[in-house]
Design a protein that fits this description.
single chain, alpha/beta, Cobalt-precorrin-4 Transmethylase, domain 1, Methyltransferase, Cobalt-precorrin-4 Transmethylase, Domain 2, elongated, disordered C terminus
Length: about 260
């Protein structure tokens, strides 16, 4: 009987895969994976498996979500073990709900295998406690990509001086994103950290205040933005001042961890 596993690949470091995820990759008949899955994790897939890239690159869609759903159902009906491999955790901004609906409609059984989501991997890479009780009584996950008009992110409902805000897929127009967050009421001096490629050998962390996010170097994807007073604990007052005064990319090395 066919079965689909919706598997989280974590941040990209193969050592941060769950044991179950690794076992599934080694025995899968078919693996449909996102574009940003690291080469090290893809190398763990069985040589006998049919490996299909269904991801996005630089905003360009290789396949529509409807086409991915159809492909997933097709292979589930023709193979014993199908893995849908997603970066981070499949249930966090991974469109897994749409794929689950397609599988249910087709009468195909499935199982979700959790992975380490980018927020946790990014916080670990930066050495930040997201819920440090001295600074935050809540934690909010959001994405900067939700369209415009009625579909735009309602930042005024999300920002708070007593909360840590983690923004997935912040994009390259970080100055506009910072402006939206400050307009929603967040103190311009609130610390933030941009984390690029968390958990990988080339990970980088850029510290600043939200008002100074315009100076953030264009770090490679995947990246995320952590906003909140907890991020201020990562650096001494002198280091924070360095971040505020830095001109990128000249001083990137000094602010990369």
């Amino acid at each position: 009987m066919s079965h689909v596993y919706l598997v989280g690949a974590g941040p990209g470091d193969p050592e941060l895969l769950t044991v179950k995820a690794l076992s599934l990759l080694r025995r899968a008949d078919v693996v449909l994976h996102d574009a940003l899955i690291s080469p090290e994790i893809l190398a763990l897939i069985s040589d006998e498996a049919n490996v299909i890239d269904v991801g996005k690159r630089c905003g360009a869609t290789l396949l529509t979500q409807e086409e991915i759903n159809a492909l997933l159902v097709y292979h589930a009906q023709n193979a014993a073990t199908v893995v849908r491999l997603k970066g981070g955790d499949p249930t966090i901004f991974g469109r897994v709900g749409e794929e689950i609906s397609a599988l249910r409609h087709a009468g195909i059984s499935y199982e979700i295998v959790p992975g380490i989501t980018s927020a946790l991997a990014g916080a670990a890479a930066a050495g930040i406690s997201l819920t440090d009780r001295r600074f935050a009584s809540s934690l909010v996950f959001a994405t900067a990509h939700r369209g415009s008009g009625s579909e735009a992110v309602e930042w005024d409902r999300l920002v708070s001086s007593q909360s840590t805000l983690v923004i997935y897929m912040p994009g390259r127009n970080q100055a506009h994103l910072a402006e939206q967050i400050m307009t929603a009421g967040l103190d311009p001096n609130t610390p933030c950290a941009v984390i690029s490629r968390a958990g990988r050998t080339d990970q980088a962390v850029f510290l600043t205040a939200i008002s100074n996010l315009v100076k953030a170097v264009d770090l490679p994807a995947p990246s995320l933005l952590i906003v909140g007073r907890c991020a201020g604990e990562l650096a001494s007052a002198n280091q924070i001042q360095q971040c505020l005064e830095a001109q990128f990319p000249a001083n990137l090395e000094a602010l990369t961890y």
